[in-house]
Design a protein that fits this description.
- This protein is 33% helix and 16% strand.
- With 494 residues, it is an alpha/beta fold.
- The longest helix has 23 residues, at 273-295.
């Protein structure tokens, strides 16, 4: 009997150990648990996330007056060197070829650098530009014409020094898979203005998808209707969007009606919200057969527009995607994400060298970005469209030396400690620079900005408190900015 009593006590102890603080707070019937549940429920209700189940993308008003209605995010996958574009360091130029100071190496982790690398000065000439005299290299002459329209954040940093985790951190708030992307959170919170197109569209160029893969635009634990929809430059914008041969549009309508009846019966029986998402996605695809094909048809643009962007209809290119971004923005798509691959300038090959591959990437994006900013501005869209440009981290002021040996081509290693992004339109201060790095471009010396701070600021420009744009999941009110202290960078908001 004593052994049985001991076993019972052990089992009870094990059960109590498994009851975590979060479970206690959530499930306690009185006291703290009830109080927590009441306040949390009230916070969620105040956001007004009340949509008809059949309309998961219906537009909703923001929590506060918004400065931006939509986002165009231009991500340069592989991380372009800020030291060759925007962060001019004349002292670094003078130290070119000298041994790296020991203080730069002690206790630091690098993706590839080993031993004692040489310092590497900027590879292209810089000059001041615009009314504020912002320094910029000669690699982006088309973009430079808009330097007084953009806001530079020169003091970004991240916790991740490899591509996939850093890209996931930037776009989902976590270096691990399974979290919703920024575009998914925005679409979840605001819906979209055009119910005939996805609220979140992704366009990829450069020949490869980013290292983080499609999780960068996934919906994680949000309903799957809020994930990004990747569109193509050739053929159907989305695979299998067109009807099969000998299937008419009325026939497709009858098939969808029959499938919808079955799905609604399944939902009534099991109550799975993903069933309603499936119905909504089938209906959206049916509407997209007309709307998406029209929106993605670049042949409708004039020869002058194609000359401005440098586009070639039917090709996969960043230029085409920039023109598509403008067409989608003016049609009310909420979040438009462009990924351009090929910026990983290690110097491991000619295509990765700062002196060869890097200038080619600049040529691929410079004219289209300039055209996009001009187009948005002329059409009155820039002031309500937040345009963001940047990579997942920066590059080192030292020349990369794998296995301690100087490499044939010139390159820089990954550097999470300092990089530059710029923003335009959507309520940010034009012609403004925020933050600064030291004379080597290695450490931030003024106004550091974490990835989560940038995310919180984007969310605020769209009219939300990032703390309240959340969803209960796994015992926590999950949000894009995670649980660490986060601030809105109010200094860059106009």
């Amino acid at each position: 009997m004593r052994d049985l009593d001991g076993l019972k006590r052990e089992l009870e102890h094990t059960r109590l150990t498994a009851v975590t603080r979060r479970h206690f707070l959530r499930h306690c019937g009185t006291g703290l648990g009830a109080l927590w549940l009441a306040t949390t429920a009230g916070a969620v209700d105040r956001l007004g996330f009340a949509r008809a189940p059949a309309e998961p993308l219906a537009p909703l008003p923001p929590q506060f007056p918004a400065k931006a209605k939509r986002v165009i995010y231009l991500h340069m996958a592989g991380a372009p060197s800020q030291l060759e574009l925007f962060d001019y360091k004349p002292v670094l130029a003078r130290l070119d070829g000298q041994d790296c100071p020991p203080s730069f190496l002690e206790g630091k982790r690098f993706a590839f650098i080993s031993g004692v690398p040489k310092m590497l000065g900027p590879q292209f000439p810089f000059h001041p530009s615009g009314q504020a005299g912002a320094w910029i290299s000669d690699r982006l002459p088309h973009f430079e014409r808009h330097i007084d329209d953009v806001c530079f954040v020169r003091s970004m940093r991240t916790d991740e020094f490899n591509h996939a985790p850093a890209q996931l951190m930037l776009h989902t708030g976590s270096p691990r898979f399974g979290h919703p992307s920024l575009g998914s959170w925005v679409t979840y919170g605001l819906g979209t203005e055009n119910q005939n197109l996805p609220g979140y569209i992704v366009l990829v160029s450069g020949g490869k998808t980013p290292d983080g893969g499609k999780s960068l635009w996934g919906s994680g634990f949000l309903p799957s209707v809020y994930q990004g929809v990747q569109c193509r430059a050739q053929g159907d914008p989305v695979l299998f969007l067109s009807n099969p041969a000998d299937v008419s549009r009325p026939e497709r309508r009858r098939v969808l009606d029959a499938i919808g009846d079955i799905n609604r019966e399944q939902h009534a029986r099991h109550g799975d919200p993903e069933t309603l998402t499936r119905i909504a996605q089938y209906e959206l695809a049916f509407r997209m057969q007309v709307s998406a094909s029209e929106a993605m048809d670049l042949s409708r643009e004039t020869a002058a527009v194609h000359a401005r962007y440098g586009t070639q209809p039917g090709a996969e290119s960043f230029a085409n995607n920039c023109l598509l971004a403008r067409r989608l923005a003016e049609r009310g798509v909420r979040f438009i994400q462009l990924y351009h691959w090929g910026w990983d300038s290690h110097g491991a090959s000619e295509s990765e060298a700062l002196t060869t591959g890097f200038p080619k990437r600049c040529l691929e994006v410079d004219q289209p970005i300039g055209a996009l900013l001009s187009d948005l501005k002329e059409r009155g869209l820039l002031e309500e469209t937040l345009v963001i440009w940047g990579g997942e981290f920066g590059r080192t002021p030292m020349r990369e030396n794998r296995n301690g040996q100087e490499m044939k081509f010139v390159g820089r290693d990954h550097h999470p400690g300092a990089f530059t992004v710029w923003l335009a339109g959507g309520g940010v201060k034009p012609g403004f620079s925020y933050g600064a790095t030291d004379e080597m471009g290695y450490n931030i010396v003024e106004n550091p900005v974490e990835v989560r701070d940038l995310q919180a600021t984007i969310i605020r420009l769209l009219g939300f408190d990032h703390h309240k744009l959340s969803l209960p999941f796994q015992g926590l009110d999950q949000k894009i900015t995670g649980v660490k202290p986060t601030r809105i960078v109010r200094e860059i908001i106009a």
